Amino acid sequence: MKKTLFLIFCLICAGLFSxxxxxxxxxxxxxxxxxxxxxxxxxxxxxxxxxxxxxxxxVNPDFDEARSQxxxxxxxxxxxxxxxxxxMYFYNKQPQYGAGVYYEYRIDCKKKLxxxxxxxxxxxxxxxxxxxxxxxxxxxINYIQENPEYSYKLSVNAHLDLIAKYKTQAKALKxxxxxxxxxxxxxxxxxxxxxFISISNTMYDMxxxxxxxxxxxxxxxxxxxxxEQVINVEQEQN
Length: 238
Known about the structure:
Layout: H1 2-27, H2 30-42, H3 46-59, H4 64-76, H5 80-92, H6 103-112, H7 116-130, H8 134-146, H9 160-165, H10 170-178, H11 190-211
Helix pairs in contact: 2-3, 3-4, 4-5, 5-6, 6-7, 7-8, 10-11
């Protein structure tokens, strides 16, 4: 009898141990690795945290929080190529994210990697996605001044595909352009106005052609040099 009870006891213990092991394994899901990664990050163990965020993504490749955490750490560790892959994940995950999410990191990675043209195109797209973004425009101008061979990138003619992609932003860009002629807010900058209004006009042309298939497809072109010299704005636009 005692042997039987002892055997039953052993079996119960073995079952509990097995169940505990299963539960422990189940706990190690993507959230487990994310939390542990944050703990490592708080302890300034960035490389360890990156490994843990990677494990979280191995469990669930769509775990956006782990990917954003890893992307930032990769950036701060100077691993710009790997960081860019993660930031481009958010860019490509339309429509939830798109061009506006993590654009500062994404663009800077491209700059650091010597992807000058891609960085400029990215800045231009951010401007379109926001329906106007004076700060990004000024950053783009400053960057082009450092790389004058890309000065043509300030023209709408260099971005017709992107403009077509965001053509529904025509009104937003027109309204945004008008703010640079608004004396009420002490913002008078015709160069900025010309830049944004030229994009808006091109978008309106595209929309008109789209709505009337009988219209001969002639896009508005700006004169060489128009809106290519843009000065600083004293009051930054939001």
